[in-house]
Amino acid sequence: MRLILLGPPGAGKGTQAVVLSEELKIPHISTGDIFRANIKEGTPLGILAKSYIDSGKLVPDDVTVDIVGSRLNDEDCRNGFIMDGFPRTIPQAQLFDKMLKECHTSVDAVINITADDSVIVRRLSGRRMCQCGRTYHVENNPPKIEGICDVCGSKLYIRDDDKEETIKERLRTYREQTSPLVDYYMKKGLLLNFDGTKPIEVTTREILDSLKK
Ligand code: AP5
Ligand code: MG
Ligand code: ZN
Asked: Is the N end or the C end of the chain the one with fewer CB atoms within 10 Å?
């Protein structure tokens, strides 16, 4: 299955993607995670991406599309994928459609997860991340041992862009550049809508049920 997860920052894309990836046995591809791994390693891509990410802006389309294109060539993507945080602009979506068409495939569904700005700000301010891709929240979804990942035992960290000013800028960027994709995929008949403010497991169940239909 070829899936896209769409939604504002903090809606729960990454949280759902990890579970869906395990359930559906398809890889979770997060452009945000790829950028953060490159920032950590200090690669040229990381240095470029950091300036955009820290100011709540999007990394340029050509750079982002190239990264996704090369990731899709990996063996594990043959039977599908879950794109988390890509595409994020109309040009990215158009280039992605073209890329898939050249491989004689297409997107099966777009999972649109929504949440209000006030919920988002609270969530991102309490978020804790693990390098393995898992996401926690100090109140809503705490790890068993404070500051440590339940699954891999690594130390959790706070994202540099989870500061209140940057969160506001990310929301603005979402509204201006990413929200038009809701209409884009609705017109293609691919959009499935979910309320991201329900408990995590409830949303997961609703997504899996609607994919079966
Ligand atoms: P990215 O890493 O994709 O960040 P984002 O879009 O801002 O989304 P988040 O990861 O913040 O939110 P999420 O929806 O994954 O929520 P999560 O599950 O963590 O991108 C970062 C940056 O990279 C961008 O700003 C941009 O600069 C760049 N970038 C990435 N992709 C790009 C692209 N395609 N083009 C250009 N630039 C790109 O959940 C949030 C919190 O809420 C967690 O603490 C979680 O535990 C909690 N939570 C989740 N669900 C629930 C629930 N149901 N109930 C209660 N709490 C919950
Ligand atoms: Mg995420
Ligand atoms: Zn971990």
From this structure: C
